[in-house]
Prior knowledge:
Keywords: Amino-acid transport, ATP-binding, Nucleotide-binding, Transport. By secondary structure, the protein is an alpha/beta fold. The chain is built from eleven helices and ten strands.
Amino acid sequence: MLDAAKTTDTQVETLLEVNNIEVIYNSVILVLKGVSLNVPKGGITALLGGNGAGKTTTLKAISGLLASERGEVTKGSIKYRGQPIQHTDPAETVRKGVVQVMEGRHCFEHLTIEENLLTGAYTRTDGKAGIQRDLEMVYDYFPRLRERRRSQAGYTSGGEQQMCAVGRALMSRPETILLDEPSMGLAPQLVEQIFEIVKTINEKEGVTFLLAEQNTNVALRFAHYGYILESGRVVMDGPAKDLRENQDVKEFYLGVSDEGRKSFRDVRSYRRRKRWLS
Length: 278
Ligand SMILES: Nc1ncnc2c1ncn2[C@@H]1O[C@H](COP(=O)(O)OP(=O)(O)OP(=O)(O)O)[C@@H](O)[C@H]1O
């Protein structure tokens, strides 16, 4: 099974393969119009794009959370380690090693930080000692959570709740984390801190990340590879370094270009954008 999932040219194992998926909400709203992407084992892959581009929908299609929103993958396939998962129940997807951290943190507000973290271990069957060890590991990554362990999550800051959401995902001992908009609503310094921890978890624990981000700048500094979504389609992909240096990415997503800062009101920019998206 693992051999089948290996890419031939680089010999890096592809864990997750999204192949030309179409997603429709409420049987009529076509949101993803043929999205394909590969997530290699041990990498940080970024899914970039503006509001409503389809990033969250892509992550939910992978984790099996679309059904609760009356969404459906109507075409294409999603494979994890070569096995189709697009019709898999979300809890089973977690058991396979894929866990999603939802946009907006979604901590259980009335539970303490520690209780929240422990909910992440609910699919585990390896006993209390392993869970306790991982709780300590999470506290080592996020010392702030150790300090706040007895606080009700609802009374902690946005940054602490984001740490809690990532920590809770780690408690399931995932192979892959789908991280939705970790920067949302956080101060720049905290965003940097969260991304540094993501990088450390990736390097030390070998956890693979697929992260959806509007903050192209920070995402492309930490990711290895990026996909840019526009209106439900991938319009560009490449190694993060190449995307960072790409003129169109600089112009439309990083807000800089060789000719100075661009505005969408600029006619030349608009024409270029149309050409790019056509
Ligand atoms: N449950 C739903 N029912 C109907 N339409 C939806 C639903 N969820 C999302 N959409 C629509 O699908 C499109 C893509 O939304 P999605 O949340 O995937 O984008 P996104 O790239 O994650 O954007 P953002 O960064 O703003 O969260 C949007 O036009 C949105 O209105």
